[in-house]
Amino acid sequence: MVVDVHTHLVPHGWPDLGPGWPWLRVDSERAAVIMVGETEFRPIGPQTWDPATRLADMAEDGVDTQVVSPTPVFFGYDRPAAEAVKVARVFNDLTLETLAGDERFIPFCQVPLQDPDAACAELDRCLAAGHGGVEIGNHVGDRDLDDEGIVTFLQHCAHVGAPVFVHPWDMPESPRLDRWMARWLTGMPAETHLSVLAMILGGVFDRVPDTLRLCFAHGAGSFPLWIGRADNAWHRRGDIVRGRSAHPPSHYTNRFYVDSVVFDPAPLRLLVDTLGEDRVVVGTDYPYPLGERPAGEVVRKADFLTGEQREKILSRNALRFLGRA
Description:
Belongs to the metallo-dependent hydrolases superfamily. ACMSD family. InterPro entries: ACMSD, Amidohydro-rel, Metal_Hydrolase. This protein is α/β, with parallel strands linked by helices and 325 residues long. The protein has one domain: Metal-dependent hydrolases (TIM Barrel). The chain has eleven helices and eleven strands. The strands form two sheets. Strands 1-5-6-7-8-9-10-11 form an eight-stranded parallel sheet. The protein has a three-stranded antiparallel sheet with strand order 2-3-4, with no helix packed on it. Strand 6, helix 3 and strand 7 (133-137) form a beta-alpha-beta unit. The longest helix is centred in the middle third of the chain and has 20 residues, at 182-201. It starts with a strand and ends with a helix.
């Protein structure tokens, strides 16, 4: 069995919500472009909105189940909370309609994370409607995951048993980062690294129950490579670095999962060695072009894995993250 915890969609029938919201420029029956204002954000094909196309690709790759999450550009965290509630409801309801209750898909919802009460209410509504969890962005403006409101939401997720998938988004722009997709190649790993540190040094893992099931996308970015540096700083410059954490960063590596979108066995081995074989799950970033195809290829070709380790990463760990094992 193979479970892919990191895929995205743009639901069928996405409406034009007015100025400033992402909208779709439909170029043909099989091609569209996500637009932000008059700027092209990303070309997309039927994989993003057509379940039959997704299922055909899953069959080709040997994937049994996909967790299907929002495309982060639709989050609306920069909008007033009432508007973000509206777009979350539209996105989440259309997601369920698009996936049509097929058990091979596990839909994750989005929430208006800038308003913790509204976010908790939308999560509860979606869980009751059939969503299996929630995807959140790794920050809301300058508020990282140790923000009090976001911690309140994470505590609620732990209380109701909702798995949380954390995805980097809204990376900084600059002339240096606007070349070569550098915002995605360097900004995304840095964003995720920063947010893992915020969870640790901001004392979040010391405050939320260990029943919180959390997964960071893209192998937790650059964090696994630099755990030693973070520990060294925690011990040597504790006056600055320790923040609200009770333990050094390496103490918390059993509190979250990471996906396997690292593309090569060497960084996959780093994930297994530093975070543990029970904390890595298959993810692909399907259907976007910087994702992995075929799904799970890096896990299958990693000859350092035992058969049991490979089985854990391909499915068993994901089922535990999802609360289904």
